[in-house]
Amino acid sequence: MNGSFRVGSLFGIPFYVNASWFIVLALVTFSYGTELGANFPQLGVTASFALGFVAALLLFSSVIAHELGHSFVAMSQGIEVKSISLFLFGGLASFDRESKTPGQAFWVAIAGPLVSLGLFGILRTLLLGGGTLTPLTAVISLLASINLILALFNLIPGLPLDGGNVLKAIVWKITGDPYKGVVFAGRVGQIFGWLAIGTGLLPILLGYGPQWWNILIGSFLLQNAGRAAQSAQIERTLSSRTAADAITPHSPIVRSDLTLREFANQHVIGNTREWKRFLVVDETGKMIGAIAADDTKTIATSDWVKTTVAELTQPLTLETIAASASLLDALKMMERIHQNELPVADETGAIIGLFEKNTAIEILRSEREARPSETPETSDIIANNESSQ
Ligand SMILES: [Zn+2]
Predict the structure, then answer these.
(1) pLDDT tens-digit profile of 193-228?
(2) Which pTM was predicted?
(3) Sequence-distant (≥ 6) Cβ neighbours of residue 267 within 8 angstroms
(4) Residue 159 domain-assigned (yes or no)
(5) How close is the Cα of 387 to the center of ligand 1, in Å?
(6) Structural domain ending residue among the three candidates 214, 241, 268
(7) 165 Cα: distance to centroid of ligand 1 (angstroms)
(8) Quick check: is 80 catalytic?
(9) What domain range includes position 153?
């Protein structure tokens, strides 16, 4: 997230705070400090605001506990938690992948609200039997309410909220299709986003000022719900095609036993693309290195008929992708090894062509043109391959 910086680790999970969070910290400290000062004049100004600050920190500890709830369940499923962040609207835990089954996804989603409900229960129990109202009980009471609100707000059944992830898991379970779950819960999230914006604007019709917080939350929901549905669409497209489906025509693959003359005639002259480098394979199709197109110039043209590609081959080892692997897996591999192209190998290990990142982007673009109502952002392909709660 832009404007975030790391402040340490929580149970080995990198912990980030967004600059926007300090605005909320200041607002909560100020508003609660003022309230405490008014209710308990004996505290004095300094102690009121100090207590307000402590209450604000405890409030955000509640948010962190909620995110740790999601994170611990995810970790128990072998999912890596990449980060926990605090920002304007609360907290966010990012995972390196999604749960494998709808049941597992359900538990990751519900764990956060369950932690918040549990904290609400514990804090309310602490207040039982306490007769007089003191600054301490006032802070505990505030925290209890905050945890209840955290649980209930997050259970609204639309993405990107936890309730949306619960709904996604349910639709996934019923239809057997995780994408249908995301698209459905994303649409419901958009409806809640519009509702929030509507309730924010409604007071204007009645002659009052707008409810800015509702409008802000609504815009946040709308933006993220739409993005969830779009990235599901992208993932679906990329998962439904294999690397073999997306091989570049006339890929720069050449056999080592060809003479330079044959290499030039068959692969270089008349090729629609000017390849700088060709992968060299042996007679079984296995990759043994690469030849640079320019290196042929070091040999006199008259000698091309008696020089083989093998003689100019430089050793090169590249990771390959299986022909049957999905484009999604291929793109993830590219991201991991920082390459924009991958040799595609069949089940015998023979190289059958080259898969280029641009081909995947082209496929997504043509899908989008075939379906104008959806507008997936191709730049988000990788960014959206992580999930968050
Ligand atoms: Zn949550």
Answers:
(1) 999 999 999 888 888 888 888 898 888 888 888 887
(2) 0.69
(3) 250, 252, 254, 275, 278
(4) yes
(5) 12
(6) 241
(7) 9
(8) no
(9) 4-241
